[in-house]
Amino acid sequence: MKLICSKSNLLRGVNIVSKAVPTRTTMAILECILIDASTNEIKLMANDMELGIETRVEGEIAERGVIALDAKIFSEIVRKLPDSDVMIETDASFKTVISCEKAKFNIIGKSGDDFSYLPYIEKNDAIVISQFTLKEVIRQTIFSIADNDNNKLMTGELFEINENELKVVSLDGHRISIRNIELKNNYENKKVVVPGKTLQEISKIVPGGVDDDVLIYLTDNHIVFEFDTTTVVSRLIEGEYFRIDQMLSSAYETKVIVNKKELLDCIDRATLLVKEGDKKPIIMNITDGSMELKINSFIGSMNEDIDIEKEGKDILIGFNPKFFIDALRVIDEENVSLYMVNPKAPCFIKDDEGKFIYLILPVNFNNAAN
């Protein structure tokens, strides 16, 4: 194999597919990036058997061929080459020469025949969504997936298609994030659970153009994302997702409208007094026209008043401050509405149009309010 392409094109491709190289594996071939120049285009590929990424790289193929190169070494070499054209040559014994200007590396590759290519997925009825919207909806929900495998379904996000609406849901047992996206077309109703890892990697490599689309294809076991010159194939998480509708009661005893930035800044300031790992709640004392926020920790205490509009009953309620910060950070509205029933029932942060709902369970603060 012999090919030539610019360092910038090669590096962009390597950075994209590297997201699917496993950190630990018993199969050495999966620690490689595959360079496939067996047709008239150069493709880079990586696959950890759960997530596979393929991207096309512009360049010139002088001799066709396929080679698998150790991902760590290959990406480090490419990163440190001069900004010029790179030539990659291989021979029958997989010896690989990577040269750029006066730099020349000799490394040993592996046979591309042993590499696990991306599974063939039949692509029917593409769901079209803008790159910007996909990137945003991941950012607005990914923080509330569970980070351990105790319940596999909690490590993914529900993607539910209902005609021209996409609902994305994540939860970790203490909070729920829901975003509703209006799609350009109508689709068959479908529900799948997409691994959080896949979505995190997608959000890093999707450029995010408002006018550029991502095509999404769903099968029983896989989800495919296609954008620009890149294809991402991921296994889905099996199982029936949690029935969250019964948790989303619209009844409330207290409604608060508050400036989002003021509330976020205030909770953020309060967390200065909370060390990593301390479970100190932020206490909200909600009365007519005022919300008093206070926190007591081993370091000290803080309290602050914020002006609010209130409907309904006064309430004293406590929350994990991080959960509130996470939700408020991804809400773009100037003012937010909080709905509460009692100190032991969830608080809902939601908009009037139904674009988002964030549910946060309160914590029992006992004497922390004193």
Number of helices: 6
Q: Provide the helix percentage.
A: 10-25%
User: What overall geometry do the principal axes of the alpha carbons give?
Assistant: elongated
**Main sheet summary:** 9 strands, antiparallel
**Euclidean distance between termini CA atoms:** 73 Å
Please report which band the strand proportion falls in: under 5%, 5-15%, 15-25%, 25-35%, 35-45% or over 45%.
Answer: 35-45%
- The secondary-structure class comes to alpha+beta
* Overall pLDDT score: 95
Please tell me how large the radius of gyration is: 25 Å
Looking across the biggest beta sheet, what order are the strands in?
Answer: 10-6-2-3-4-16-15-14-11
How many strands appear in the DSSP assignment? 25
- Low-confidence stretches are none
Offer a concise description of the structure:
With 370 residues, this protein is an alpha+beta fold.
What this model shows, in words?
The chain has 370 residues and is an alpha+beta fold. 16% of the residues lie in helices and 44% in strands. It is built from 6 helices and 25 strands. It has helices at residues 7-17, 71-80, 131-139, 196-205, 260-270, 321-329; strands at residues 2-6, 32-37, 42-47, 51-57, 60-63, 65-70, 85-90, 95-100, 103-108, 110-111, 127-130, 156-171, 175-195, 213-218, 222-227, 230-235, 254-259, 282-287, 290-296, 301-307, 309-312, 315-319, 335-340, 347-350, 356-360. The strands form 4 sheets. Strands 10-6-2-3-4-16-15-14-11 form a 9-stranded antiparallel β-sheet. The protein has a 7-stranded antiparallel β-sheet with strand order 12-13-25-24-23-17-21. Helix 1 (7-17) runs antiparallel to helix 2, helix 3 (131-139) packs across helix 4 and helix 5 packs antiparallel against helix 6. The longest helix has 11 residues, at 7-17.
